[in-house]
Write a structure and sequence with these properties.
single chain, alpha/beta, 6-stranded mixed beta sheet, 6 strands
Length: about 160
């Protein structure tokens, strides 16, 4: 199983003006699937604060997977993908494709997400939208992958057949 960290990106959430629904939902679903939630935080839509948190968690080896929620849309304040790309070592585009394809089964607005999936060191970082419905749909895609992703990132894996 994976050690999961959850980062909510929201100006109003960070200011205490809006309840964070996406972060707790990610944590709840990860725990229910048998993963461990090792860190949670809320930061405003500020590129450097987002990047600094991602960098700190990944570089400390605190989590196998960091899941962000929020800041993936088209408004000028939506900078989570850009912040994530500044800390990225490798992109994982197949995860993004799977998330969008699954989201499109539910709403055409899934095509508007700009979330990315990357690795930094031995940590996978995936951006999910802030909408709780979209979070749940994204977790449906991610949860079956997390154990194997963790195994792959930790070192050599012998693939059979």
């Amino acid at each position: 199983m994976a050690r999961v960290a959850v980062l909510t990106v929201s100006d109003r959430g960070a200011a205490g003006e809006r309840e964070d629904l996406g972060g707790p939902l990610i944590a709840e679903l990860a725990l229910a699937a048998g993963h461990e939630v090792v860190a949670r935080a809320i930061v405003p839509d500020e590129r450097e604060q987002i990047a600094a948190t991602l960098r700190a968690w990944a570089d400390a080896g605190a989590a196998d997977v960091i899941l962000t929620t929020g800041g993936t849309g088209l408004t000028p304040r939506d900078v989570t993908p850009e912040a994530t790309l500044t800390v990225a070592e490798r992109e994982v585009p197949g995860i993004v494709v799977a998330l969008v394809v699954n989201g499109l089964r539910h709403t055409p607005f899934a095509a508007l997400t700009r979330g990315v999936a990357v690795t930094r060191g031995r940590t996978l970082i995936v951006n999910l939208p802030g909408n709780p419905k979209a979070v749940r749909q994204g977790m449906d895609v991610l949860l079956p992958l997390l154990g194997h992703v963790t195994e792959l990132l930790q070192g050599p894996v012998e693939h059979s057949g």
